[in-house]
């Protein structure tokens, strides 16, 4: 018996066992010279009689294989008689049998099986076209190897037979084993060795009738059916028709197989060439079906894409463009209404214009012009009431719909042109000079808006646009002066003897002197409101009257204080004379300016009197 390392006639060396079944074992061998691989089939029958029959059968197989030359047929290298058996040496075909593929992967696609069927038709057509024709007579998945490139190779030609002709009388009985006379179908010597695998063989082959090319077609039909369905046909009895139980084939493939499996040879294809044409037509129809399916899929994808785009456009129109247009249209209408309210406010009386400005602030809360207009209207009488202050505080603290910040923060962030800095300045001066509430509340609010103004200034300086938003540098100087005065105010309330109080009075006096210079510069530029200037002059005059002694203690002479009073009186006279020339349309504001002027005069007289008294006491 062969084993790994055994040599056959000094040419082939056994490498390993690769298969086993029945009376045979298959080994992989290598030619020691060419290094080519071969399959060695060792057959060991049970008795001498079987050995003799087997040798004759293998000699017959070898004789047939030597005459065959086709890429789909295994090539026989040699038949080597052995003491206890026979060695059949063939080319080693790398790949898996269709039976192995079926066991591992299950039923195959109709397209794949049809392609395999066409390859098998080519092989059988070659064999049937020889003279005399050769029948394979044992076609089954285990005798077909699929190579790595997809081509099929037939192996095991033990059942193959030559025929001299195809007898038209298919009812003629002949032995299953062929006879050597010329009257029968077979031209082989007589053997007692049966051939073929029952489940794959045609009825005429099983019952002793004359097999022909249609017998191979039957076996091919059974093989294709098994590869397609994953099982053999049902009711495998000699006189019963095999039944196709798989669902109806969409491309006509199973009807072709059913025709191959007809029990009556007359109902089968008359040649493998006809079968090949039918299978090729199936592939063609399948290709057409695939092309149509792909075209249909492309159309469906295109339609889906168009549907998606349509839906997208509809959503874009209804959920973006239309709302966007509506929003834009609504904003346009709001802007028009806002402009109309602002125009009405400008032309309305002083009693009505505040209501128009308030409506405009409610309509477009992020636009600063209405706030500035309301503020100027509120100060037209020279007094900022607590009601007006409360209304403005609520307006600035309001958070517009869809925003996270309040109106004041939004206005500060926008810094629209020079409107917001101007608004900050007007608010700071209004709270500082005209708030009717407590002095502390007014100064606190004034300091907040002063800081807002200075922040806007710093932001503008970084962009180089400060002059464009402020209009004059004296406003910035005034904000800084008033901030400094506010910081010293607390220390001025300390006991007179404290060093901190003395220092604060000195600093405060210096700031008041700068404030007088600032007021004069604003009046000279013609950009200062008379009411504001008079109110600031009243404050300076009042501070001299109230704190003359404290100023004197910190080194300010009476003459210096008198000089300041003269300066205040001179600026007040200029303002008073200009007030007399005001138009009648500003009668209310002119009256307020005159009231402030006479208040200032009273302060001045009191301050002069106090300074004179201090001077007399000092000299006396």
From TrEMBL:
Organism: Hominifimenecus microfluidus
Keywords in alphabetical order: ATP-binding, Kinase, Membrane, Nucleotide-binding, Serine/threonine-protein kinase, Transferase, Transmembrane, Transmembrane helix
InterPro entries xref list: Kinase-like_dom_sf, Prot_kinase_dom, Protein_kinase_ATP_BS
GO molecular function, one term: ATP binding
Transmembrane regions: 301-322
Domain Protein kinase: 12-283
Protein name: Serine/threonine protein kinase
Domain of life: Bacteria
Keyword Oxidoreductase: no
Entry-linked Pfam families: Pkinase
PROSITE patterns per UniProt: PROTEIN_KINASE_ATP, PROTEIN_KINASE_DOM
Binding site for ATP: 41
């Amino acid at each position: 018996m062969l084993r790994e390392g055994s040599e056959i006639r000094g040419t082939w060396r056994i490498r390993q066992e690769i298969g086993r079944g029945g009376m045979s074992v298959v080994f992989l061998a290598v030619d020691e010279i060419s290094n080519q691989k071969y399959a060695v089939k060792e057959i060991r029958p049970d008795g001498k009689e079987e050995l003799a029959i087997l040798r004759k059968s293998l000699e017959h197989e070898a004789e047939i294989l030597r005459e065959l030359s086709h890429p789909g047929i295994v090539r026989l290298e040699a038949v080597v008689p052995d003491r206890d058996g026979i060695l059949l040496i063939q080319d080693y075909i790398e790949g898996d049998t269709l039976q192995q593929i079926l066991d591992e992967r299950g039923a195959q696609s109709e397209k794949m099986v049809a392609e395999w069927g066409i390859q098998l038709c080519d092989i059988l057509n070659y064999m049937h076209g020889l003279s005399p024709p050769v029948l394979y007579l044992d076609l089954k998945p285990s005798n077909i190897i699929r190579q790595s490139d997809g081509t099929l190779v037939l192996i095991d030609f033990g059942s193959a037979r030559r025929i001299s002709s195809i007898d038209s009388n298919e009812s003629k009985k002949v032995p299953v084993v062929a006879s050597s006379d010329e009257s029968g179908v077979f031209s082989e010597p007589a053997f007692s060795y049966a051939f073929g695998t029952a489940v794959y063989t045609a009825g005429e082959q099983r019952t002793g009738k004359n097999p022909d090319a249609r017998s191979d077609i039957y076996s091919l039909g059974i093989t294709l059916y098994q590869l397609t369905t994953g099982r053999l046909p049902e009711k495998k009895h000699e006189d019963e028709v095999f039944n196709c139980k798989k669902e109806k084939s969409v491309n006509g493939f199973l009807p072709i197989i059913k025709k191959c499996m007809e029990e009556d040879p007359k109902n089968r294809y008359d040649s493998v060439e006809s079968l090949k044409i039918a299978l090729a037509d199936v592939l063609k129809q399948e290709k057409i079906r695939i092309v149509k399916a792909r075209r249909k899929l492309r159309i469906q994808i295109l339609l889906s894409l168009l549907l998606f785009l349509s839906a997208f456009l509809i959503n874009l129109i209804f959920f973006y463009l239309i709302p966007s247009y509506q929003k834009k249209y609504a904003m346009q209408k709001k802007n028009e209404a806002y402009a109309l309210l602002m125009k009405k406010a400008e032309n309305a009386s002083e009693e009505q214009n505040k209501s128009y400005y308030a409506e405009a602030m409610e309509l477009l809360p992020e636009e600063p012009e209405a706030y500035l207009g309301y503020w100027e209207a509120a100060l037209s009488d020279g007094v900022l009431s607590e009601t007006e202050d409360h209304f403005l505080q609520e307006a600035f603290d309001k958070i517009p719909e869809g925003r996270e910040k309040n109106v004041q923060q939004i206005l500060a962030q926008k810094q629209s042109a020079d409107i917001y800095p101007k608004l900050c300045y007007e608010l700071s001066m209004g709270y500082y000079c005209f708030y009717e509430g407590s002095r502390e509340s007014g100064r606190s609010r004034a300091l907040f808006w002063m800081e807002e103004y200075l922040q806007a200034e710093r932001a503008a300086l970084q962009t180089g646009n400060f002059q464009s938003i402020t209009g004059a540098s004296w406003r910035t100087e005034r904000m800084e002066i008033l901030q400094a005065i506010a910081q010293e105010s607390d220390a001025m309330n300390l006991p007179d003897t404290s060093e901190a109080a003395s220092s604060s009075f000195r600093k405060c006096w210096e700031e008041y002197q700068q404030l007088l210079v600032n007021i004069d510069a604003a009046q000279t530029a013609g950009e200062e409101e008379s009411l504001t200037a008079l109110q600031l002059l009243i404050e300076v005059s009042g501070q001299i009257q109230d704190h003359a002694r404290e100023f004197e203690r910190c080194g300010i002479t009476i003459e210096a204080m008198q000089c300041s009073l003269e300066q205040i009186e001179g600026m007040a006279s200029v303002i008073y004379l200009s007030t007399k020339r005001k138009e009648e349309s500003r009668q209310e504001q002119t009256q307020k300016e005159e009231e402030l002027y006479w208040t200032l005069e009273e302060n001045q007289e009191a301050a002069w009197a106090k300074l004179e008294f201090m001077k007399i006491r000092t000299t006396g």
